[in-house]
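[09:14] KT: can someone run the structure on this one? pasting the chain below
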Amino acid sequence: MGSTANGAAAERRTAASNGRSPVDKEVDFANYFSTYAFLHHQKEMLSDRVRMDAYYNSVFHNKHHFIGKTVLDVGTGSGILAIWCAQAGAKKVYAVEATKMAVHARELVKSNHLQDVIEVIEGSIEDITLPEKVDVIISEWMGYFLLRESMFDSVICARDRWLKPNGIMYPSHARMWLAPIRSGLADHKMSDYEGSMDDWHGFLKETEAYYGVNMSVLTKPFSKEQKKYYLETSVWNSLHPNQVVGTPAILKEIDCLKVTVEEILKVEANISSLVTKEDTRLCGFGGWFDVHFKGSEENPAESDVELTTAPSQDDGTHWGQQVFLLHPHARVNEGEEIFVNFSMTRAEDNHRLMKVDLGYSIKQSSGKMLPRVDNKFFIE
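[09:31] RB: done, structure tokens below
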């Protein structure tokens, strides 16, 4: 079923080259992979019509990429992508799943009479061994704000180990976006933080009055803890397009055939956005992503399908948007320009989570540049 030694060695080399400690696989499984072993979690993703339609259309509108081909599905989950690939004409599909969801995938494949085409393999892509190289790698690897969860690392590993030189990736390209927004969430979060601190001060008084212990020395660390929770942790939200108050800008573009793990460890960008609303509040920034199924230059898709998680007034996605709220907010007006310095890296204690440094400054209509404001956020 695979070479655990080779996979572990590769992981240690990657971690060492990036100055990180090797990931504890048991801890990683408990914190991350185990979630995907539950059918209710799979149902949430399978109920996302935007997600499902994009993958379905990308496969069945580009059958020439699958007919008679060998396919690897990384993180197959329920197995539905593998089933579509087989239905589109693939001669062999290797469906790799790290959790016990592989048992359900195997049953689903059998009930759809595709067990002669699809082989479900339980194990991590870093550890398993395939009997051959593949023509296509398909995977739904995207996390919140694209890179949270770091599953793309495994897809890159699969590509480097098992994709033929002229093979293609589904999806083939990805982009990360950021735009200024207005939202009442900023006021709610500040109110929650202030309420938490009021409760803390009441707790201090009662503890000293009843038990004779003054615990005020812990106020500063408690405040720091609560600020991180309420004010510095990015918020999952489903934004309406009317909440976007400026032009969106691309933070990063990714070619899935070429990108390396080292190139996604850190996302840095200096962007600008032109305010499009009259006299409004700048309450934060919203981040989202899109992916495309374009094939390759040598073997392009007949139908270029896009999956976007941008703010929508109709059907959103289960990814929604990542919202970075500002405290305090600022006021902006149409025609003003917002300059943003953005940096996102992986958290030291959990490589699947992210930390963000976001600085912004506003160039007013008069030409005056307001002082830069720096913020730190966590994507957890």
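[09:33] KT: thanks! Residues 185-211 form the longest helix (27 residues).
[09:34] RB: yep, looked fine to me
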